[in-house]
Design goal:
The protein is of the alpha/beta class. The protein has an 8-stranded mixed beta sheet with strand order 3-2-1-4-5-6-7-8, sandwiched between helices.
Length: about 325
């Protein structure tokens, strides 16, 4: 059988069809699954083949809409909704305890959720809200679910953790370790803070793969530039204009950054979760459904940065992550 050919325009449905056998029988948890987002589209295409799809969200009404829509579109799907607020360590621990009480092992954990890119805001734990939701919360969730992930491993299957990052990680100079621990409203810029969390996603995938010594394979990815509600917020428009993601009128511009549809945007997540050719590439970064490690910025691939971030994050959550 020849290797599948994926491209910029490949959709999540197309990838799921190629890897239907790999998806079959798997239990998958996806964070951030509101309708009209790439997390929802990921859940929709996987639900046709998987044994169980756990969808999460911090808003019970939106989560119910997502559950009902998925069950309507895929009547055979086994969908299990779960309230999860990644901005609160206590809420993450509560959700993890619920998941750990489920009888099934967990094959794939997909970190898709992201905080609103907006003004400086502290969480209940006194972390900056974007880094809490995009990095610290997911790190803690992975740690707490690691036993359930490891339980799905066999001689023929290695569980996976997927981090939806962004190519925009190249637009910053890396993780700011000092403000991670001591948030600073003075130097805060919303889009810059977002890009730094995307660096953290890449570094965490690299370090998780290294530390697990083959027991868990982690991957990060760029989904593409996709129109979301976040991009239409007033405080975001000016920043996106500077990067020429939006034109002077605030409309999508493909002069420097071509745009993807939501089905195209979810494609790389599905590939990262189920492409068996990635088995020998733990920690890889994907773009357009294929490995693209050569496009990672140096500050996001540096092993010393990855280890430093891991150790600091353990301190912030008050728990050691061991295997």
């Amino acid at each position: 059988m020849s290797e599948p050919t994926f491209s910029f325009t490949t959709t999540a449905q197309e990838v799921a069809t190629v890897f239907a056998k790999e998806i079959q029988g798997k239990n998958v948890l996806i964070t951030g699954t509101s309708v009209n987002g790439i997390g929802f589209e990921t859940a929709r295409v996987l639900a046709k083949h998987a044994n169980l799809i756990i969808i999460t969200g911090h808003n019970s009404e939106r989560l119910k809409i997502a559950e009902d829509t998925l069950k309507n579109e895929v009547p055979s799907a086994n969908i299990r909704p779960l309230i999860l607020d990644l901005s609160s360590l206590a809420a993450v621990r509560k959700a993890a305890a619920e998941i750990n009480a489920f009888p099934e092992p967990l094959h794939v954990l997909i970190h898709n959720a992201a905080a609103v890119i907006g003004p400086f805001k502290l969480t209940v734990d006194n972390f900056e809200s974007q880094v809490a939701t995009n990095h610290i919360g997911p790190f803690l969730l992975t740690k707490l679910l690691s036993s359930k992930l490891l339980a799905s491993g066999t001689t023929h299957y290695t569980p996976r953790v997927i981090f939806v990052s962004a190519k925009g990680h190249i637009f910053c100079d890396g993780v700011n370790f000092s403000t991670l621990e001591r948030p600073d409203p003075e130097g805060y810029e919303p889009l810059d803070a977002y890009f730094r969390t995307k660096v953290a996603n890449i570094l965490t995938a690299i370090e998780l793969s290294r530390r697990s010594k083959g027991q868990i394979n982690a991957y990060s990815l760029h989904p593409g530039v996709i129109m979301t509600n976040n991009m239409q917020r007033g405080d975001m428009v000016d920043s996106l204009k500077k990067l020429e993601i939006l034109d002077e009128n605030g409309r999508p511009s493909d002069k420097k950054h071509p745009w993807k549809t939501i089905p195209q945007g979810a494609a790389t997540t599905v590939a990262a979760a189920f492409d068996s050719s990635l088995n020998d590439k733990p920690g890889a970064y994907l773009d357009d459904c294929v490995e693209a490690n050569d496009t990672i910025a140096p500050h996001a691939s540096d092993s010393a940065n990855a280890e430093r971030l891991w150790v600091l994050t353990e301190r912030l959550i008050g728990e050691s992550f061991t295997f």
